[in-house]
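Morning run. Coffee first, then this:
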Amino acid sequence: MNILHYVLCGALALSVGAAQAQKKGKTSPPPPPVPQLDLSKPEDAQKANRKITSSLKDGESCYYYWQGNVFSRVPGEKDRLLFTYIAMNTRASATTSDPAKGYGWRHVSRELLFYQDPKTGEILKTWKNPWTGQEVDVLHIANDPVNGRGPSYAMGNDGKTPYKLSGFEKDGYWFQLNEVPLFYSNPLGGEYQDEVGGTYQAMEIFQTITPMNELLDANKDKTENSLIAWTRVSKWLPWFKMGDKVGQMIFTGIGKKVKSFDDYPEALKNEIKANYPIYVAAPPTDDTRPNETSWTYYKKIAADKKKGK
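And here it is:
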């Protein structure tokens, strides 16, 4: 019995050892390649654009965060740091199509920007204007909605010109620059702005940097680590009550796309929950309201104050 026992044990050990050796020598097949968007194809280029802006999932709220500084510029005077700020934009999109222009999508969004005391970081309620000495109520940016002007399609209005994603690739990142000169009738001005002036003029500059592996991965509905920079050069904000004083405001800021509302800083989340709860999610994708700006928003608030609301 003892001899048989040892023989059986030895055979079993040899069998296990052979199986283990065979297992170690065996290599697993490589994983299948990740399907990729082809930016040379207009439909894929539009999908890449949509992934940066929002998500390929219709109606999914996506979130951007940025923070920065606000300076004044007056000829012959040293630039002043007036405020720091924290800001957010929540957006969503929906798929559409056109017989001639092909695949398309439209995006909707709303945004907030809260002015802070540069020394304490406190979100301001009032502010003493250093030029007039007047204590004024601070009107934060609360633009709802800020929607795309119309659907973007794979082909142009002629049905022949293919869409091309703006920007360039370098070292694994996609870089985009979008400069937006603004020049239109000021909603706070009168009917004779062409004759006496007052036209609103500004420049907004948007920069985006996105990892190529996120952008091209056809299995991903959105990018998660797009970085942004924003600059605005504009006239004085209306609540400054500066009248005809010569000068400009310069906004600078940097930020990124975040995964969810919960990834915002606590101060921003608390302010939204307390006073701006609708900004937790994007507007409905069929929203057709006219866009809001700092100037149209101020006009509404001023009108409400006059009515005693």
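Residues 125 and 138 are 5 Å apart (CA to CA). Good start to the day.
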